[in-house]
Amino acid sequence: MINQKPSEILEGNPFQIRESKVLTIEEVFQIIEINKAVFENESFYLTVESIQDFLSKESGVIFLAMLSGKIVGYSSCCLESDAKDYFDGREGGFSNDVLYFSELAIAGKQGMGVFLKLFSSVLDKAKTLKVKKVSMHARKNNGLSDLIQKRYRATFVRAESNFFGSGEDFDYLEILIN
Question: Full-prediction pTM beyond 0.90?
Answer without folding.
Answer: no
